Amino acid sequence: RILDHSSGRSMSAADPMPTEPFQLSAILTGHEQDVRSVGPFADGQVITGSRDATVRVWKVDSESADGASATCTHTLSGHTHFVGAVGITAAGEALSGSNDKHIIIWNTEAAAPAHVLQGHTEPVTCVRVSPSSGQLFSASWDKTARVWDLGSASCVAVLKGHEAALWAVQPLGEEAASDRCLTGGGDRTIKLWAGETCERTYEGHSDVVRDLALLPGAGFLSCSNDATVRMWELGGECLRVLQASETFLYSVSVLPGGEWLTCSEDRTVRVWAGGSDDCVQSITHPATVWDCAPLPNGDIVAGCADGRAYLWTRAAGRAAPQALQAGFKDEVAAVAMPAQQVEGMVGDLDVSQLASEEALAQPGEREGQHKIVKDEGGTPMLYTWSMAKGTWEKIGEVTGSSGGTSLGKRMHGGKEYDYLFDIDINGSMLKLPFNRGDDPWWAAQQFLWNNDIDQAFLDQVANFVITNTPGNQVSSGPRNADPFTSGGSYRPAANGAGSSGANGGNADPFTSSGAYRPGAAPEGVPSCGGSSAPQDPWMRGAYTTAQGAAAAAAAASAGSFAEQHGITLTGDLGEVDATPATSFAALRRTVGGVDQPLPTAVAHFLHKRGFDAPSPIQAQSLPLTLAGGGGGAV
């Protein structure tokens, strides 16, 4: 019997292996950005988590006259950064982990958080519930896994031992030892834990371990960025290595019939014969597939980087109408794939040596095999072989190189990024990681700090990132993002009162309230700076206290330093001294046409003095300190 890692269901592996291919069943449309995580409820509902910071619950109607249909019944908003992990509690409630470092246990029907679990200090990457104890296990980039008692909403164990970010945790679900679990992460190892004690370390993967799934009676499976799935016995021996892709693998699980299920960077979901290395079926999607999971009825749900989730079925009665399937096929074929990414899938690419479309008359040798040919216009096209259909199916056009971005190789420091730029600084090639939705100016500043590079390079580096991330929109989450963390870790209350709690939002420890409200500049607010006060090396004289405002305005009218450098101050200057925390948080600057919160300066202030984050006392006093108290610019 096989234990489904997402739902904890025990499923029989004794039935004959299905032979019918999976067909598109339904498309789940609603998220505004990548669907990063998926899972099933016991009753067949589907849960999805997205980069848009929301969780959605979907009701799947398998009895529809036109195949299956899916309706979003609940949208759960509460996280302030993207949701990278979802699951279901033993009581049937949704749970989610996010890059805001929090785990939320939801009251699904009320579409509101029931509990917010805080403890991790970096993004939460995986959440799994033990089917035996009902305890929650979580993994994080902070290199730890945590065990939570959901009854008291408290952390009962912290598992420390990995040397890099964790990506996966899998409780063993043993009745006699319910605290045992497996973890895997960026240090390329897997560890077996009993409570907070590491019993064994498994080594073999050559890159980041991304996911784990149980094979009761045999051991467990692991998948990695090294493109392999490994089958292990708990005693430590690696029983089998499957080359499951040519690119990163993001998820591994087990279907009811015993087949293995993987998804990867190359846009595919692949079904593998459990007893051999044969690929039963390769299903190409319009974009990267971040996660996939089996449903109780044997169907599959896959979360995709195009903002949608896809249901796949072997049951003819649940198949989508032919028009929808044809439209999906056309969308897949229309994808433009950079040559650098295709080379990672098929090896070196020499366009001058490509065959014509006549080469497609030669059948493929295995499911998912790739072939590149030139169409009538000489454009390279990528095809994949379908054993079930006996045809080559087009999955995209091969375009030019990406010009400075590493595609398909986006791990840096054991963490995952959408882009990994090569930056040439005085002849030294350095890596700059970047995620869609990040602030390019803040990413550039962190790059300078981390590599001890002169501040004069800030504009050059930031503009390079902006140029090479077309369409990037700086994300602040569904509510105001916290400017100190650049990740929206704090959720100011809607009324600005700074109340705390799951419903009201966490008080922002920087402003000492929920006062961070970006907005348009009031009329008559002057540009500041000039020679009336010493220039701040970070802000370049971009702000002053109330006493310095008049002098700064006069300087600005004569052509100030701030005006020369495109820096503009907005905010209620008259209240800086009277209510420093509130007014300081509301101040903003404009650099190079990009609007930024002034409190970013405090992050710089703390960084240069060795602080990782402000204490409550520091957070309350820093605005007053930086405002100067006695007048003049700081």
In short:
The protein has 634 residues and is mostly beta strands. Helix content is 14%, strand content 36%. Helix 3 packs across helix 4 (458-467) and helix 7 crosses helix 9.
- Mean pLDDT level: 74
Uncertain stretches of 5 or more adjacent residues: 1-17, 401-409, 477-603, 611-634
- From the spread of the alpha carbons, the general shape counts as globular
* Beta-strand segment tally: 42
Derived from helix and strand composition plus strand pairing, the structural class reads: mainly beta
Give a verbal description of the structure.
The chain contains nine helices and 42 strands. The protein has 634 residues and is mainly beta. The strands form twelve sheets. A five-stranded mixed sheet has the order 31-35-34-33-32. A four-stranded antiparallel sheet has the order 3-30-29-28, with no helix packed on it. The protein has a four-stranded antiparallel sheet with strand order 4-5-6-7, with no helix packed on it. α3 packs across α4 and α7 crosses α9. The chain starts with a strand and ends in a 7-residue tail after the last helix.
List the helices and strands and how they pair.
Elements: E1 2-3, E2 10-11, E3 23-29, E4 35-40, E5 46-50, E6 54-61, E7 69-77, E8 83-88, E9 94-98, E10 103-107, E11 112-117, E12 124-129, E13 136-140, E14 144-149, E15 154-160, E16 166-171, E17 180-185, E18 189-194, E19 197-203, E20 209-215, E21 219-224, E22 228-232, E23 238-243, E24 249-254, E25 260-264, E26 268-272, E27 279-284, E28 289-294, E29 300-304, E30 308-313, H1 322-333, E31 336-338, H2 339-346, E32 355-356, E33 370-374, E34 380-386, E35 391-399, E36 411-412, E37 415-416, E38 419-425, E39 428-434, H3 440-451, H4 458-467, H5 546-557, H6 561-564, E40 568-570, H7 580-586, E41 588-591, E42 594-597, H8 600-608, H9 616-627
Parallel strand pairs: 31-35, 32-33
Antiparallel strand pairs: 1-2, 3-30, 4-5, 5-6, 6-7, 8-9, 9-10, 10-11, 12-13, 13-14, 14-15, 16-17, 17-18, 18-19, 20-21, 21-22, 22-23, 24-25, 25-26, 26-27, 28-29, 29-30, 33-34, 34-35, 36-37, 38-39, 40-41, 41-42
